[in-house]
Predict the structure.
Amino acid sequence: MDIQTLYKEKLATADKAAAIVKSGDWVDYAWCTNTPVAFDKALALRMNELHNVHFRGGVLLWTPEIFKIENPAEHFTWNSWHMSGIERKTCQLGFGFYSALRYSELPRWYRENIRHVNVAVFQVAPMDAHGNFNFGLSASHLKAVCEVSDVVIVEVNENMPRCVNGIDDSINIADVNMIIEGNNQPIGELGSSGEATDVDRTVAKLIMEEIPNGACLQLGIGGMPNTVGSMIVESDLKDLGVHTEMYVDAFVNIAKAGKITGAKKTIDTGRQVYGFAAGTKKLYDYVNNNPECMAAPVSYTNDARTIAQIENFISINNAVDIDLFGQVNSETSGPKQISGAGGQLDFVLGAYLSKGGKSFICCSSTFMQKDGSLASRIRPCLTEGSVVTDARPCVHYFVTEYGKVNLKGLSSWQRAEALISVAHPDFRDQLIKDAEKMNIWRRSNKR
């Protein structure tokens, strides 16, 4: 049977597709920009008749319609691989939960541990001449999800970029059960984090000093990594490469400034490699059918063994806080989940395995509390309920607006001294007293 005939046979309305979901099902809503729209609207209309349905997804850029029904906790759970601001609210409402896993492990986890999903549904680019639906902006883990799903539903969006030259970046019509058309709304965008602050710029300058020509970059989400990107655009750096979990607008700016060639990359030479992309239309237009950009599953992009093969790898990520032992929390505020583990630890480990590689964890030295007072992000111990994203033996460079310190291999007293040296001056004396109580401060360190 030719693919056009097969296409017509599998064409379905969103209502018909949504009708297959049953109480007790596990439904995969894909990831970020690929989260379904038409199917979601149709399913929301009948969600009140269903119970104990479990959804998986992550990094939501808009609020799904199923979230808007009355008493959602009575009907379903939302299980997130990585919390966005929208998903944080679901936790407080009693139907959202974080699924802890290193992002790099996700494809294997689906294939070897889950092995069974009832329904998988996600947005894709239009079918090509060979019957393939490109996953667009999220190669991520979607091929693995398809392989273990009873029913695979694709929602075709004419606006979804085709992200080519990748690995596991598409699904063939032979493996699709239903096709939904008609959702041609603009792809969801991830706005910028706002204007760079003086703190962002100071931290970025400290990191810029460590980036050589020919380095390969990984940038996390947030103001500081984006500010580094802006500074690279204005710098004399050249022949940079990209190998990252998330492709963001900063990379587009760097590439258009002529700084990215990938010529020095020891693998995937000349190609910008990423697991998923989210940003503005400028980014979506740039990656569309761009042979210089390579979409790949996170089991490849985030694997420390892959990263280790790339020389002069520079990883830059944000943190919520750090304690005097060097334990980094990048995902919670106490017990409140605010993001996820993602690939931060993978890139911290991989960068150090890279010849000449460095990883940077950065944050402002302080934050404003609800009562208007300042609090230190460098703490004696992490707040009760906070999680450890990066264990203390793994952290390489830590940076605030007061300096950068290399924590690798330091003894407990050296580590405490280094961290206090980049804390806000108003908190250093108290941190010294706290370190003394914990027996990780030498009297000779006192000034």
